[in-house]
Amino acid sequence: MRIDVVSIFPEYLAPLELSLVGKARAAGILDLHVHDLRDWTTDRHRTVDDTPFGGGAGMVMRPDVWGTALDGVLGSIAAAPAAPRPPAHLVIPTPSGAPFTQRIAEQLAGEQHLVFACGRYEGIDARVADHYREAGVVVSELSIGDYVLSGGEAAALVVIEAVVRLLPGVVGNPESLVEESHGDAGLLEYPVYTKPPEWAGLAVPDILMTGHHARIARWRRDVALERTVERRPDLARALDPTLLDAADLDTLSVLGWEVRDGAVQPHDDGL
Ligand code: ADE
Question: Rounded to the nearest whole angstrom, what is the distance from the C-alpha of residue 111 to the centroid of ligand 1?
Answer without folding.
Answer: 22
